[in-house]
Amino acid sequence: MTIRVMLVDDQALLRTGFRMVLSAQPDMEVAAEASDGAEALAILRETPVDVVLMDVRMPNVDGVEATRRICEDGEGGPGSPKVLILTTFDLDEYAFSALKAGAGGFMLKDVPPGDLLEAIRAVHSGDAVVAPSTTRRLIDRFSSVLPATTSEPVAKELERLTDREREVLTLIAQGMSNGEIAARLVLSEATVKTHVGRILAKLGLRDRVQAVVLAYETGLVRAGSA
């Protein structure tokens, strides 16, 4: 299957660079480009796209608002695409707002090409991808609004997990990627991915972001422990 990608960035030179990287992949094609959120929404109504690489700071309609319209309001057309935020600014409010708006991931523009390609594939498959440094700081920043004690119904949810799955969930909450978890636990990445899938299924979670929040809500991980 070819992943149809849309590039949304107000800098044409950056779009050119990303297009070169993506076009060299056998499983990807750049289906469309836009210079701001408003243009992106208009194009999406006419062009089928699987994943949108969305900048944040743009004129007219910014990336966060465009993401909200795509994910919440369905303005991306039938079968709205997944959105991967790609920005120069590693600022927590952008990441939090984008994820809350429905983005499947948040990465920085200086991410290595290989990591970017894997992030696109992961978001396309339904996983969530957040830059590890951003995950850690988001949790530290917003931990004050999480419950201080564990509620019985939520604690019982964790009883569904095996010891290994709890261990993997703990590392997810610390902002580790599948590759980093595999190295820490001396497992293959395929095995880690299987564990992650089972964790999400058992706990009824949509993605890794929800898994991180649950880990802190239940007290499995504490802020500052990452």
TL;DR?
By secondary structure, the protein is α/β, with parallel strands linked by helices. It has helices at residues 12-23, 37-44, 63-71, 92-101, 113-124, 132-142, 152-158, 163-173, 178-185, 189-203, 208-217, and strands at residues 3-8, 28-34, 51-54, 82-87, 105-108, 129-130.
Major beta sheet, specifics?
A: 6 strands, parallel
Name the helicity range: 40-55%
Tell me the overall shape. globular
Question: Strands of the biggest beta sheet: in what spatial order?
Answer: 2-1-3-4-5-6
| Unreliable sequence segments | 146-154
State which percent range the strand residues make up: 5-15%
Note the gap between the termini.
Answer: 37 Å
- The overall pLDDT average reads 82
> Structural class of the secondary structure composition?
alpha/beta
Q: What is the number of strand segments?
A: 6
CA radius of gyration is: 18 Å
From N to C, what is the helix and strand string? EHEHEHEHEHEHHHHHH
Q: How large is the count of helical segments?
A: 11
Give an overview in words.
Strands 2-1-3-4-5-6 form a six-stranded parallel β-sheet, sandwiched between helices. The chain is globular and about 50 Å long. The termini are far apart. With 226 residues, it is an alpha/beta fold. This is Response regulator transcription factor.
